[in-house]
Amino acid sequence: MPPRRSTVVGAEAICTFFADIRAQGFRDYVVDLGDVFAKDASLVASGRWALRGLGGGGPYKGNWLNIFARERMGWLIAVHMWN
Q1: Which CATH code for domain 11-82?
Q2: Which InterPro entries does the entry link to (predicted)?
Q3: Based on C-alpha coordinates, what's the Rg of the chain?
Q4: For 35-57, how does the pLDDT look when each residue is reduced to its tens digit (9 = 90+)?
């Protein structure tokens, strides 16, 4: 959930969210995978992220966590959290 906004749900809304970040001038988004493990019928992945802002601001850095759920169509992201 972006700060002061509602939860982003669905592929189109997620694409719009990240397009808005790029439109604000944020670039050079880097995601590093730190750990992956299985838990029940899910996969849990975590790591670090970084990006730069307008005029070379940043880098901004943080952590991320994804929980993948096995569905008929394959693995889907059930939870995507980052700070």
Answers
A1: 3.10.450.50
A2: NTF2-like_dom_sf
A3: 14
A4: 999 988 899 999 999 988 877 77
